[in-house]
Each structure stands twice: as C-alpha cells, then as structure tokens.
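Folding follows sequence. Below is one example:
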Amino acid sequence: MHDIKRIVVVSRWTRECKKALHYGISLARSYQAELSILHVVRNAFELTGGVLWMHRLTDLEEEYKKTVEEVKRDFDAMIEAEHATGMTINETIKDGEPSVEILKAVEAGNIDLVIVAHHEEDRLEHYLFCRDYETIIRKMPCSIMLVKTEPWKEVDKKTSRRGATLR
C-alpha cells in the first residue's frame, strides 16, 4: 500500500472548504503525515487587460470579501487548536489560476494526497473559479479526495434540495 506522507488541503476561502480541512487533519493524524493548506486566491474583481462587465459587480465583491473574512477566522481557529495539540500545519497563499497553482504546489511539494471540497457552486464561486475540478482531476500526479459538501441546509430530510419527495 502507498504511504501517505504529505497531504495538502485546497482552500478557496469558501465555507465548504472547512469540511475538507477537517478530513485533512484527521488523515494527517492517522497517517502521521505532513499537512499543508493551499489557499488559492483568484480575485477576478481586479482583472486587468480588459473591461469586466457584470451586473451588480460591487455586491459580488463585497459578498466575496465577507466570506473570505469569515472563513479565515474559522480556519485560524481550527489551525490554532491543532497547534495546541502539537500538530504542525503549513499554510501557503497563491494568487492565480487555481488549477495551475494547485498543480505547481503538488509537484513542488511531492504531495501524496490532495483534499478538495466539492459541492454545487453558488454564483460567486462559479464566477471566480469557473469549475476547475475537471482540470485538477485530469492533471494531478497524485491521488485526490473530493469531500462532498452542500452549500445549502437541508430543511426536511425527506425531501431533496429541489423539494422532490424521496422514497
């Protein structure tokens, strides 16, 4: 069996990425592996070389900033709690095309496992990240764990997210 010695959790500064970090912490403990977090920032609101037209762009930018601040606080608290137990978690922030930055980090760090939160993207994430998962999955030289999360809260466990009754 292949030993897992180096794990990287990919964060896109979204709430759903917190669940991926939980998995990363748990697996790093189990395998006594090194754990890193790669925060991939892609601020599409500062694109250069053209005009970016989008309805209510200012509202989206404010929504993005608030989400990033909230997630940073939560991540910092989780990391601080793990540091208190003796676990070391390295963090790196990269600005650029997510699939390119993730691939570079994996190759440079000789990573054995990439953990990524996977869920239905909201309008802001779709705009910022343009569904990079397909590219990431096809090009990664290591194993990938997709952590299934959903951005909505299930109101009634007997109904699906679209309201259809489950049998």
